[in-house]
Amino acid sequence: MEFYRDWVCPNIPVVIKNAVKHWPAVKKWSYKYLRENFGEKLVQVAATPNGYADAIADGFFVMPEELRMTFGDFINILENPNSLPGTILYIQSQNGNMSEEWADLVEDCGKDLGWATEAFGEPPSAANFWMGDHRAVTSMHRDPFENIYCVVRGHKDFILHPPIDLPWIPYETLPAARYESIKNPGASPTYKIVPLGTDQNNGNSKELTEGCKTEKDDSSEACMRKECGNSHNTTSAESGSISKIVDDLSESKICEETVAETLKSESMEALFTDSSKSNVPWICIDPEKPDLNSYPLYANATQVKVRVHAGDVLFLPAHWFHHVKQSHGCIAVNYWYDMKYDHRYANQAFITALLRKSGLNTGCPPLF
Length: 368
Fold this sequence. Notes:
368 residues; Jelly Rolls; 20 strands
């Protein structure tokens, strides 16, 4: 109960060194082991041109294109990113994927952490598996969960802000959209932004050309072509979405899967704050390169930078803002425990209401 007394009650994050170093996963989950034991497994992967899934781009809140591929092919691409130029991949579905999609891995890490479950008085509501490219970035946001974040391989870099920084954290409410790739035979794909609820062929999408191309690897250049007739394909053949990798990955099949229109984390608040149900309030500042000319109040905010290494655990309390980057091929498992509607929630609800009513930060959405 020391953990609950010293860290949970005062709502303070802490890194617990070597807390999961004993996990079999820390010793076993190499590329070789995962490829040999789970290489044929079909998995859901987020694809973006810039590494930013669930982030602001060109006046939209943009979610990633969701692909299906074998785990072995995903690992092959991590080892040789130029085999899929212009695209950054990240396994980051925040839907409790350890209970179903990644259930085969649970025996190497467990369904929960016993001391955390004891402290919170209940098992986690969800556990998630994360793995991806070093260029994949989680934009700054906050979650309505007590987060126990366990790094298995590599490291994660967090930029944190305490909940009390809310007056200085700017929000914008933007229409929701998703990325959709467009094939360019013999070259990197380009991406367009497709607003949710619109026909992809009606001319309302916005094509992206900057930042979508990477240097080609002449020894392993990937060609892209459309695979028709797949039951997972939900777009027309003319859209040219990524569906097949040729060359070294000639047997690989990547099937486009319908992008879930359920908005995660804070974006769920849009369902209650906007009648169109398609606008999302999201933090509009990059803590690594803050635009203080546009958002001068952010200069008052306090950044806490934390690196979490393999075998370590970060306790990230509910309502703490966080921005996340990682080493290449980093693997992590996190457990979400439901937050309590206690004094911490009441404090945040009061501050949020005060800011909205006073006009000091009208963009911040109501609490969860």
